Amino acid sequence: MYLLRAIALCVFPLAMAFHNHGSSGTLVDFSDPKVQGHLDALVRLAQSCVIKVRATPKDVRAYFTNSAPVTRSGQCFAACMLEQSDIINHGKVNRELLIHQASLVNGKNSRVVRKLNSISRLCLDSIEGMSDRCQLASTYNDCLNENMLEFAFPLDIAEEAVRKMPFHLIQPNLPQEMRTY
């Protein structure tokens, strides 16, 4: 997320680029350059974070499937993603940037942006008084995910992102069949 970094890497702008169409499920338009650009940038950011925090496939899968992390490295992976995207900086959430990035994909007055605006405020309460950077980022991210379920990443996108991670660089003896799990 980040104007290149800021625009491209925010998890929510990408997740919210996938519009839910009622009973037909989630429609992903991979031909949309905005969607592809956000996805590519998000994957690059995630690859960097995998190496920095030694995240496991399970950690990354939890993040990309909007599940709460169950390990410390999973929490720190969330922190890395949000910090590198400038959504969290020195333990402070930059709601304005999060909302701005979502509006770039969805439009300033879209339902997504209006909902994110109110939910992101609510989620600030969930991190009040936290000082541990991994716990703070993970808790904030989990709150957003729990309250914006309709905008979750499609499973195929999550699985593709996990397959692109450089787990072999941090776990060189990991058997090939385990690298995607």
TrEMBL record:
It comes from the Eukaryota. InterPro entries: PBP/GOBP, PBP_GOBP_sf. SMART domains: PhBP. Keywords: Signal. Residues 1-17 form the signal peptide. The keyword Signal applies. This is Uncharacterized protein. It comes from Chilo suppressalis.
